[in-house]
Amino acid sequence: NNNCKKYYLQNNGFLEAHNTSPFQTVCQTTKAIYSGCYSGDVAVYGLASRAWSKCLAHSKPITCMSPPLNNDATPLLTGTSHGSCAAHDSHTMLEVGRSSVHPEKVTWIHAWERSSFLSASKDGTAALWDVRAPPKKRIIKRFTHGTDIITGNLLSDQILCTVSLPLEKVQCMRSRKGYVRRRSVFLNFWDI
Question: What is the average pLDDT across 9-20?
């Protein structure tokens, strides 16, 4: 995940949290390591306390996370295999907002402002959403990329880049089938 920094590892080189399912994604701040689990839990390792805690964030596997930014000015963000996204206060781990943003797996999530967030999905769309808005109006803007988005990146305060790797058939005389398959990189840039 592109939101992850170097992991703070125990002396034996492994992070281990008791009573959690396997980790799917990990991100960290200077205060904690956050691990998104297949069970939908977020396991939190406090660097100062050297102790684990966990909270139930989703009922489906967590597929991407974004750590709190700017000294915890933004919440911890999580996205799932079924398209829902949630924001959690980084101190209490209480949910501060949730939205069913996408119909498919969320592949990237990022804070844009204190309560406005960006997410991208395998459904080929990216979205700008706000947890302060009423549930039916949470999605402020949707960007249609066209193919499965594997990741995104906020290039500046106002420019979002979405990335996909479509599989294409290319004609090739040397192939028995008359074509070969290759991956291309497809980028879109969006004004937020």
Answer: 46
Chain segment 107-129, per-residue pLDDT in tens: 999 999 888 999 999 999 999 99
- Nearest residue to 20 via CA among 46, 4, 44, 48: 44
Q: Which of 1, 47, 46 lies closest to 23 in space, CA to CA?
A: 1
Q: Which single residue is written with the structure tokens 């101190």?
A: 91
**Is a pLDDT exceeding 70 seen at residue 104?**
yes
C-alpha distances (whole Å) from 160 to each of 11, 61, 66, 189 are 38, 25, 16, 6
User: What are the strands of the beta sheet with 159-164, ordered from one edge?
Assistant: 151-154, 159-164, 186-191
User: CA 27 to CA 52: how far, in whole Å?
Assistant: 15
pTM (2 d.p.): 0.81
